[in-house]
Amino acid sequence: MSDQKPKYRSAAWFGPADRDGFIHRSWMRNQGFPSHLFDGRPVIGICNTWSELTPCNAHFRDLAEHVKRGVYEAGGFPVEFPVTSLGETLMRPTTMMFRNLASMDVEESIRANPMDGVVLLVGCDKTTPALMMGAASCDLPTLALSGGPMLNGKYKGEELGSGTSVWEFSEAVRAGDMSLQDFMEAEAGMSRSVGHCMTMGTASTMASMVESLGMGLPMNAAIPAADSRRNVLAWMVGRRIVDMVHEDLKMSKILTREAFENAIIVNGAIGGSTNAVVHLLALAGRIGVDITLDDWDRLGRDIPCLANLRPSGKYLMEDFYYAGGLPAIMKSLGDRLHGDVLTVNGRTMADNIADAECYNDDVIRPLDNPLAENGGIAVLRGNLARGGAVLKPSAATEALLSHRGRAVVFEDIDDYKARVDLPDLDIEPEDIMVLKNCGPRGYPGFPEVGNMALPPKILARGITDMVRISDARMSGTAYGTVVLHTAPEAAVGGVLALVQNGDMIELDVANRRLHLDVSDAELEIRRAAWVAPEGEFDRGYQKLYREHVNQADQGVDFDFLVGCSGADVPRDSH
């Protein structure tokens, strides 16, 4: 131990030959760490979102051990620490409410502790953006490792896709086309291994965003969680993060505007989740890159969907890996991408994908035979969405992308649930279902309820899709002609709050238009009579959330978290 100027941040804790250094080293020794681990080598924090309440991440204890092996092999000192885990399938009212909380946990844990570099163990939907956002606010050398998708679901000779098949089966039961017993028996076959959703839902989309941003090693997105090669990747992550610390390769050197543009383009090519929009907007805000909804529309407008994956297509993530994974998609995109951007392995993106091959051109379609001509996210504007709204064309019914219909309004999710199954509900297939007060502040938390199930009386007529509009989100595994993230939301007085039953609404995706056919004068009369909904929560984190959350077009981050604070060494604790 010495008082020389420390080479690494952790030396401020473990380096001094004084009382404080004694305290920091001594208490760590009770875990059996030997003296040579405190000799100035890089300390690598392994940020773990393991939890039995987050099934997607329940294998992360084992994954972390493989990362540690790589760190030790490269001469680093790995220290694993837990942060808030966000389980999409169990948490209520929605994990999105807690994404920012988890990001705060990550940020403060990194800044307060002796870390020189960080490995983020991510998987379930919100764990990826939450950990990336928190780490970006500190800007240390950081590498993200996704947990990987489950193996393909199997049931009665059919392949099941998590999420997507749930929506399909649920509608079939409500329409009388599937028995409740079959529905219940399909559960075990759908989730038959460790890992997150094996459809191109939000978890797989965000794993792809990690790789396309350059924040993960090649093949991060697609290797199944149960495949031994996922553990090999974890080992390589451990080795590489030590080198990143030596090179001082921080997140800000990788997360450039060009990297975000690559990710937006790739999201179109994979038919990625609409949830990627709010997550990347928030991440860009943390790292100080100016990305807007207009960039999403401009960059994704002419990008063909090449990944024939559910919910837009046929196959699942296991098939995607065998077909060549994300590098094969990115190589197909050619000069549409910024090939010169730097990635976490120290190479450029062009270098990483140079040798990529496609082994199944039905899973990964060639440019001249795409699954859909436009896989990007369409950003709609008009008097009904002055701040913008989004729609995923590759998951929509083409005939409904230009549609005019009568509004059937549900004031909130409770109103929807109370009336949607009523046989006397006044609704026809050409109508437009409108759901209010499910935005960031309205639910609260911005839940995945935008893909409203159709009324049984509509399903009974063989209709499987209708135009649906809300200020909510939808699961990345969902599908349909669904307009989401309408901003400003109803709860803060957006025009969505003023829509009434019988109003005519025009959706024109080609011209990016979402218009409520009501005069400005009439809207002003309605606004004068509008009363803001009362907040359901008046204490704790949920009160903080309602008071500080930004709108969907700004990424739904907290207003006081936008920007990067760095990771200067704090004052000592003694």
Largest sheet: 8 strands, mixed
Radius of gyration: 24 Å
Task: Report, as a whole number of angstroms, the end-to-end distance.
Answer: 19 Å
Strand content: 5-15%
- Derived structural class: alpha/beta
Count all strands and give the number.
Answer: 14
The domain tally reads 3
Q: Spans with pLDDT under 50 lasting ≥5 residues?
A: 1-5
Describe the model.
There is one protein chain. The chain is α/β, with parallel strands linked by helices and 574 residues long. It folds into three domains: 41-151 and 193-353, 3-Layer(aba) Sandwich (Rossmann fold), CATH 3.40.50; 153-192, no CATH class; 378-535, IlvD/EDD C-terminal domain-like (Glucose Oxidase, domain 1), CATH 3.50.30.80. It has 20 helices and 14 strands. It has helices spanning 11-14, 19-29, 60-73, 96-112, 127-138, 164-174, 180-190, 202-212, 228-247, 251-254, 257-269, 275-287, 293-300, 317-323, 325-333, 349-353, 413-419, 456-459, 520-529, 540-548; strands at 43-48, 77-82, 117-122, 142-146, 153-155, 158-160, 378-382, 385-391, 402-410, 432-435, 467-470, 482-487, 504-508, 513-516. Strand 7 and strand 8 form a beta hairpin. It is globular and about 75 Å long. The relative contact order is 0.11.
What distinguishing features does this structure have?
single chain, Glucose Oxidase, domain 1, disordered N terminus, Rossmann fold, 4-stranded parallel sheet
